Amino acid sequence: MTEEGNIWQGTPSQWVNFWHFAAALALAAAAIAGGIFFAPAWALLALPLAWAAWRFLVVRCKRYELTTERLRITKGVLNQNIDEVELYRVKDVLMTRPLWMRLTGLATLHLQTSDRSLPSFDIPAIRFATELREKLRAQVEQVRDRKRVREMDFDDTAGGLGDGGDLGDGGDLSAG
What's the whole-model pTM score? Predict the structure, then answer.
């Protein structure tokens, strides 16, 4: 049996919080402006700052780890959830790079899997996503070869019992 090793680990960029931080900054500016004319409004300054700090922690505490056997997703600031997807269950990887991500050198990987608890998920706003996608693809193939596993998709609409498909015995389902 082979030792499981770490291939890559990372967290999303804080760029995913851009609009949250912008909104917090606008609310903080409004609280400051209100505090100039009405002193109790200064207390409202704590709300957007706490919200921005929370959003920062949510992104900072999200971790993705690619090993030789699985992809592990860790989420949570106070309570932590760890989910794992066996690499041989990865069906498809799509990389998207909208303009703002291209300008910042980031990309998002969208994964489709045959895992029941995590059929699809994103690895958002990461650096060197092209290299990660290639590492992931190569490792998926290596694990499938080692475990002798192949991914097969079946079309539920073609040839099923619901559409009068051939059962090989004339289609008679009655007993007796």
Answer: 0.77
